[in-house]
Amino acid sequence: MLTALKPQPADKILQLIQMFREDPRDGKIDLGVGVYKDPTGLTPVMRAVKAAEKRLWETETTKTYTGLAGEPAYNAAMVELILAGAVAADRVASVATPGGTGAVRQALELIRMAAPGATVWISNPTWPNHLTIVKYLGIPMQEYRYFDAATGAVDFDGMMADLAQVKAGDVVLLHGCCHNPTGANPNPVQWLAICEAIAKAGAVPLIDLAYQGFGDGLEMDAAATRLLASKLPEVLIAASCSKNFGIYRERTGILIAIGEASGRVVTQGNLNFLNRQNFSFPPDHGARLVTMILDDEALCADWKAELEEVRLNMLTLRQLLAEALRAETGSDRFGFVAEHRGMFSRLGLTPEQVEKLRTDHAVYMVGDSRLNIAGLNRTTVPVLARAVADVLRG
Ligand code: PMP
User: Fold this and answer.
1) pLDDT over threshold 90, residue 89
2) 20 to 30 A from 92, CA-CA: which of 8, 52, 230, 326?
3) Structure pTM?
């Protein structure tokens, strides 16, 4: 049986990590994988997470199973963090999932069950896992234009023209904030138009919210999600705690399904069913830490303060990099780096230039020229800017 298996294509980012590890050069710079790094290059455990873990260790009396949907207190705290009362509670069903990826997967399975044949519309480009999971599940897919490589901004006209083709019952997958991989995001006026286009089409948005707090702050980053959730009859939200709580390996996420109040019990039952079929009970440790933090005033204040440091560090690096690139290249071509939000920006370099960055300068970024801003620090910003200027000269 196993001999019938075909090799899977290698994961490009994991390949990049391996190459970086094996590179013996001093001063090599890793801008590949999407984890936050502090100015010393570490991905620390957040203070509030450490404190909650200590408290949990002292007070936890059992590790017996939780509910299929997770602990109700976790779901309630996450729904509040994301929606802040934008939607009546009796319209909201939710399940805890293994990370944001688990939430995306469960959302797509729910879509396949509820609307077999519905097309899922995906931004071009998007996080590669969106494409592979949709394909793996055999769900019809179409891309909508999203990014204008010439300006580094959202190709809003192209996006709207493509969204006009969306049919009733289709699903539009959106990044709630901090678009991965481009870093370019619609402004509030554009979000309103996107919301209207989806309403007009009679489609359902699936919002992937993996970076709340990494862009313009916890509230602003949830604004588009809240807008869509409050205006549209049905909305799916797949959210991750990996980044904003720094608990990547704990696998903590949530799928929220908003619909008519009269259908909530059936929707909830189907979410529970999907968890049951795929893994039974969702992981609890990370969810419990998140709940303890969100439900405790002091821990929550400390978490928010540290998250804000993280966000501001990335914003400062963006400004420094935009300035350094302007100085080194003598052009405003990379001004968008300061406008982008979140952990990533797509620089718009060719695959050959990205390869030259690696071979000549020991700078590692994904082949589409996506770089992890948090992989930089004040010392490496000018090094990167000089390297980019060098590869642009050819
Ligand atoms: N969606 C997007 C757009 C992401 O970038 C990520 C993380 N790379 C996720 C979802 C999910 O992350 P995780 O499963 O680690 O929570």
Assistant:
1) yes
2) 52
3) 0.97
| Closest C-alpha residue for ligand 1 atom 11 | 100
Give all domains of the chain, ordered by start, each with its CATH number. Answer: 10-44+310-393 (3.90.1150.10), 65-295 (3.40.640.10)
Decide if pLDDT at 13 tops 90.
Answer: no
d(CA 240, ligand 1 centre) in Å: 7
Beta bridge partner(s), residue 205 = 172
Residue carrying the six token digits 């590179």? 23
The enclosing H or E element of 172 equals strand 171-175
The ligand 1 atom nearest the CA atom of 103: 14
The per-residue pLDDT of the chain, averaged, comes to 97
Ligand 1 is surrounded, with C-beta below 6 A, by 34, 99-101, 104, 127, 175, 180, 208, 210, 240, 242, 248, 253
ipTM score: 0.99
- Structure confidence by residue, pLDDT tens digits, 206-263: 999 999 999 999 999 999 999 999 999 999 999 999 999 999 999 999 999 999 999 9
Cα 249 to ligand 1 centre (Å): 12
Q: CA 235 to CA 232: how far, in whole Å?
A: 7
208 a catalytic residue = yes
108, 89 Cβ separation under 8 angstroms: no
How many whole angstroms separate alpha carbon 93 and alpha carbon 268? 5
